[in-house]
Design brief:
Pfam families: ChlI (PF13541), Mg_chelatase (PF01078), Mg_chelatase_C (PF13335). The protein is of the alpha/beta class and 553 residues long. It contains 21 helices and 20 strands. Strands 11-14-17-10-18 form a 5-stranded parallel beta sheet. A 4-stranded mixed beta sheet has the order 1-2-4-3.
């Protein structure tokens, strides 16, 4: 009789649960039983593990084999348990010293040839292991940079099960070519130059993420947007205070261009935010090659035909992250929002308030972070020409009402800024009003406003104006005397709800931070109120266009 144990991690959303993998060998008919609430993909690991062990040069035990995954009440899915199951079986068969496995955490899929392949969710899995006190992690070589983001953890990257067996037995590890290259019997002069020897011991990798960048892409500059002074200012307010924004206007006015340039105005992610975003993208399998840490705010723009599962999260079996989670600490842009399903749009109301989404399925419940900046864009009517002088709109009034009703009142009540994007004039398109500010200039003001807000809320759980409850703003950080008089009048007339009143005050604080005011002035509140209701108020200095005069020849 032989027994061995090691450990792995089961992921539920972005939260990991440490799982003890136990293998027991008894005399009897050679069978392989896997218990502990595995799903279909995990049940199939029996065949993968058997083939991988044999092809790694080890002997498969011809006895009754039982592998248990504990705690048994936690659903387990995916192929990330393969490496742990294989090592536990080899430990029970005394091919590996069972004592060398007891303190290891293993994450990796096995190919039939014994290769160790990367899996999703390595970062949240290693975080869960570190929180549980485990410090030695074995992963596929490709995921070593991602696993090494967790401090005080020793990471071993291996290419094959054969290498791991040798290392655990204190034997020289065999050389393995990178996955997808020529086999071992290819002569050295024909092998690829990127072959390199594997790691020979457990070491804490001092890997630095800032040196890695995404693939080269053209930076989208705000200076490319002609005209649209009000919309540009509203976009700046949205970035500075993390306020949701809605662009309404005819096709070709620049709504999508404005939304695509919003991520460039946002400050880089903090260390904690970067880990949260990377964990979500790792679970979704969306980390780009060579980019184990996401450092810039993500930008997600699903098609307007997106389903509930793709936007909020879900799928067969355990739910997967949706677009609202993929845009965590970034921007979620819904173009042609009025074409989206009203049911799908209304499903965003809960994560917009709470900053997370909870998806319940028969196989389990998932809680995912979803604190994103929402940008909506829509045409005024199905044809897009309603309200334009000489536009020739032929939509019936009932059709226009149904079209606009898809953006429900409760959803729009959670959107702080509502901007009418008007068609460009010929002079604006030709740039005769001066050169617009570029992204770098506006981003500096946004960063300064964010720093003012962060200093104000230093001893609180909030960091941005959009996070602060209205009661706290009214009592601890009130506006100037009489500054809210117009907003209070609008509330009395039913133009503002109580939630809308709080959001006007939050936007007013953001406007004040951008203008360098200690407290919101009446002009700041009027500008915030105009962005909320669309009703023109008294002139505000903040609305004055800041442009760079064109140089004369």
């Amino acid at each position: 009789m032989g027994f061995a144990r090691t450990r792995s991690v089961a992921l539920v959303g972005v939260e990991g649960v440490v799982v003890e993998v136990q293998a027991d060998l008894e005399p009897g008919v050679a069978t392989f039983t896997l218990v502990g609430l595995p799903d279909k993909s995990l049940t199939e690991s029996r065949d993968r593990v058997r083939a991988a062990i044999v092809n790694a040069g080890a002997e498969w035990p011809q006895r009754k084999l039982t592998v248990g995954l504990s705690p048994a009440a936690v659903p387990k899915s995916g192929s990330g348990f393969d490496l742990a199951v294989a090592c536990a079986v080899l430990g029970a068969a005394e091919r590996i010293d069972p004592r060398s496995l007891a303190d290891l955490m293993m994450l990796g899929e096995l190919g039939l040839d014994g290769r160790v392949r990367p899996v999703r969710g390595v970062l949240p899995a290693v975080l869960a292991a570190a929180d549980a006190g485990h410090r030695q992690i074995v992963v596929a070589e490709e995921t070593v940079p991602e696993a090494s983001l967790v401090p005080d953890v020793s990471v071993l990257g291996v290419r094959s099960l054969r290498q791991l067996i040798a290392l655990l037995n204190d034997e020289p590890p065999p050389e393995e070519p990178p996955d997808g290259t020529l086999p071992d019997d290819v002569p050295p002069h024909e092998q690829r130059p990127e072959h390199r020897p594997p790691t020979a011991s457990f070491t804490a990798h001092g890997w630095s993420a800032p040196g890695l960048t995404r693939r080269t892409e053209r930076t989208l500059d705000l200076a490319d947007v002609a005209g649209q002074t009000t919309a540009r200012r509203a976009l700046e307010v949205a970035a500075a205070g993390r306020h949701h924004i809605f662009f309404k206007g005819p096709p070709g006015a620049g709504k999508t261009m404005l939304a695509e340039r919003l991520p460039g105005l946002l400050p880089p992610l903090t260390s904690q935010e970067a880990l949260e975003v990377t964990a979500v993208h790792s679970v979704a399998g969306a980390l780009p090659p060579g980019q184990p840490l996401v450092q810039r705010p993500p930008y997600c723009a699903p098609h307007h035909s997106a389903t509930m599962a793709s936007l909020i999260g879900g799928g067969t079996g355990l739910p997967r992250p949706g677009a609202v989670s993929m845009a965590h600490h970034g921007v979620l842009f819904l173009d042609e929002a009025a074409e989206c399903s009203a049911r799908v749009l209304d499903a965003m109301r809960q994560p917009l308030e709470s900053g997370h989404v909870v998806v319940a399925r028969a196989s389990g419940m998932m809680r995912m972070p979803a604190r994103f900046l929402l940008v909506l864009a829509a045409n005024p009517c199905p044809c897009g020409r309603h309200g334009i002088r000489g536009g020739g709109c032929e939509c019936r009034p009932a059709s226009i009402r149904r079209y606009r009703a898809r953006l429900s009142g409760p959803l729009m009540d959670r959107v702080d800024l509502r901007v009418q994007v008007k068609p460009l004039s010929r002079s604006e398109l030709a740039g005769q009003h001066g050169q617009p500010e570029n992204t770098a200039t506006v981003a500096e003001r946004v960063l300064a406003a964010r720093e003012r807000a962060a200093a104000r809320y230093a001893d609180t759980p909030w960091s941005a104006n959009s996070d602060v409850p209205g009661h706290e703003l009214r009592t601890r950080w009130p506006a100037e005397a009489g500054a809210l008089s117009r907003a209070e009048d609008d509330m009395e007339q039913g133009l503002l709800t109580a939630r809308g009143m709080d959001r006007v005050l939050r936007v007013a604080w953001t406007v004040a931070d951008l203008a360098g005011h200690d407290r919101p002035t009446p002009e700041d509140v009027d500008w915030a109120l105009e962005l909320r209701t669309g009703v023109k108020r008294s002139p505000s200095a903040f609305r004055a266009p800041l442009t760079v005069p064109r140089s004369r020849p």
